[in-house]
Amino acid sequence: MSSPPRTAQRGIATRAFTLWKEVATAYLAPALTAGLGGFLSGQPELTRAAFTSIGATSAVVACTVGAWLHRRGRPRRWTASAARPVLALGLAIAAAGIAGLAGWFGSDWLPSHTPVPDAGWLDRLRIDLPLSAGLAAAIVTWRWRGTTSRQQA
Fold first, then answer.
1. What is the pTM of this model?
2. Pairwise CA distance, residues 106 & 13, whole Å
3. How far from chain centre, in Å, is Cα 31?
4. For residue 93, which of 60, 136, 57 has the smallest C-alpha distance?
5. With contact defined as beta carbons under 8 Å apart, do 46 and 118 qualify?
């Protein structure tokens, strides 16, 4: 008696790209790790930033990039054909650049043109926003590209 042929490769489970799970992970992973790091090192400003600027930036970028990549379930031709590392790096650089401009705007322009006081948390935006955005974009892109390459195979 022979067993039926296996159609799936051993060890590879195909999973669908689920945007809400990616966004939740993009918020929780950096928020919990940076929050724990801030708590253990005695840096309360890092603990606060973990759940605000770091986690929120990661979630917004993951949602934006993931929705743009997923686009009604059909990938754009160039995103599906680009090499996974190139696509992830390109979108990470773009997201970090945009977030870096937002961080600069928040830390320099806001205190001089609005009633927002020049607080220490504004200086953190220059680092928190681009770093969080770049990592979130790279991870979501990498994971999304992994699901599309398995579906096409």
1. 0.81
2. 43
3. 12
4. 136
5. no
- Count of C-beta atoms within a 10 Å radius of residue 137: 29
Q: Which two tokens stand for residue 104?
A: 């600069």
Question: Which residue, among 149, 147, 64, has the nearest Cα to 102 in the 3D structure?
Answer: 64
Among 128, 140, 146, 108, which Cα is nearest to 48's?
Answer: 128
Identify whether the C-beta of residue 100 lies closer than 8 Å to the C-beta of residue 147: no
Can you give the pLDDT of all 153 residues of the chain as single tens digits?
555 544 445 445 567 788 899 999 999 999 999 999 999 999 998 999 999 999 999 999 999 999 998 876 677 788 888 899 999 999 999 999 999 999 998 888 878 877 777 677 788 889 999 999 999 999 999 999 888 765 555
Report the C-alpha gap between 116 and 35 in whole angstroms: 25
